[in-house]
Amino acid sequence: MKPVEAKVDVPVIGNIRHIRPLGRFQGIEIISPREFLDKYLPGI
Question: Where are the domains of the chain?
Fold first, then answer.
């Protein structure tokens, strides 16, 4: 299996307790799955 490389604008994480408090990583906002849905797919 070959690794897949992709650009990410918003990392969506489930590890709320440990990672989310950082808020940002290298200038990129870290959000929860619920925040992603609310922000990018409203109405779901």
Answer: 1-44
0.70 cut: is pTM over it? no
Q: How far does CA 16 lie from the centroid of its chain? A: 11
Residue pair 29/23 in contact by the 8 Å Cβ criterion: yes
**Phi, then psi, of 13 in degrees rounded to 5:** -125, 155
Picking from 18, 21, 14, the residue whose alpha carbon sits closest to that of residue 36 is 14
pLDDT tens sequence across 3-15: 555 555 776 677 7
Count other C-beta atoms under 10 Å from residue 37's C-beta: 14
